[in-house]
Design goal:
- The structure is a single chain.
- With 257 residues, this protein is α+β, with helices and mostly antiparallel strands.
- The protein is 18% helix and 38% strand.
- It has 2 helices and 18 strands.
- Strands 9-8-18-17-14-15 form a 6-stranded antiparallel beta sheet, with no helix packed on it.
- It is extended and about 115 Å long.
């Protein structure tokens, strides 16, 4: 029995040692979260506004994209404190926009101010008056013979896509669209290296921009496949756009009948 005691003690030490080591181990320090991109908005006048952003270095890559307008860059950038900046923009303060910069992207939504109770009552009376007037106009319109009116031609966009599903052409509306492998995306593309939300497409009546949403396989543009900087809107024309190495995308203008 005495000969077996050291062996049993050694086996017990082997079993208990990992538990003791784990109990005294220092937990790893969690990585520092990136600073919040947007921490304030200022309305300077009817034609100027400012965005307060958090960034460790001057946000020279800052872009703001509002609906139906090309991406806008700040006119001036002023340091407020270490890591905090004031970027001034021209134009009216948008009610909503996407902000890209400092390797991040964030949505900017301006809440509408609450109206006084008496103004709500005025709007309610106005709504009733509009409904009564609309009823009279509808009755009058029924008495007039309808004449065929040709709808004007509307410009739009087309996307020529080549991915694992083959080649296809789809019509695109203006606005902000998301491309990726997620079924919730506006443009669904399939490939072995395509992220769920791979890129943003920002389409206006005259221009098209694309933004890489920090996808692992990247977004490339042009015949030499120049890699685009993440979270930075890039103007594109009729050249090839590559999402990763497997999906080719080309945008073109179309005119409806």
């Amino acid at each position: 029995m005495r000969r077996r005691t050291p062996l049993l003690a050694l086996l017990m030490l082997i079993i208990v040692w990992p538990v003791l080591a784990a109990a005294h181990a220092i937990p790893p320090t969690p990585p520092t979260a990136p600073p919040r991109l947007i921490f304030g908005v200022e309305q300077i006048s009817a034609t100027a506004w400012a965005l307060l952003v958090g960034c460790p270095s001057p946000p020279h890559d800052l872009h703001v994209w509002a609906e139906e307008a090309p991406p806008q860059r700040p006119q001036t950038i002023t340091a407020l404190a270490p890591g905090r900046w004031r970027a001034q923009f021209d134009g009216a303060l948008p009610s909503s926009a996407m902000v890209y910069g400092c390797g991040q992207s964030a949505a900017l939504v301006i809440a509408s101010p609450a109206l006084p109770l008496w103004m709500n009552s005025v709007f309610a009376l106005g709504a009733v008056a509009v409904m009564l007037l609309s009823t009279r106009l509808v009755r009058r319109a029924r008495r007039v013979a309808s004449m065929p009116i040709s709808a004007p031609a509307v410009s739009g966009w087309q996307a020529y896509i080549t991915d694992e599903q083959g080649e296809r052409t789809i019509a695109l509306p203006t606005g902000m669209l998301t491309a990726g492998s997620d079924p919730a995306c506006h443009i669904i593309v399939l490939g072995s290296d395509i992220a769920l939300r791979h890129a943003h497409l920002m389409l206006t009546e005259t221009q098209a921009h694309i933004v890489d949403l920090a996808s692992p396989s990247g977004v490339f543009c042009g015949p030499v496949r120049r890699r685009l900087r993440p979270h930075t809107p890039t103007l594109v024309s009729d050249e090839d756009i590559w999402l990763g190495a497997t999906v080719r995308l080309r945008l073109g203008k179309t005119r409806g009948e």
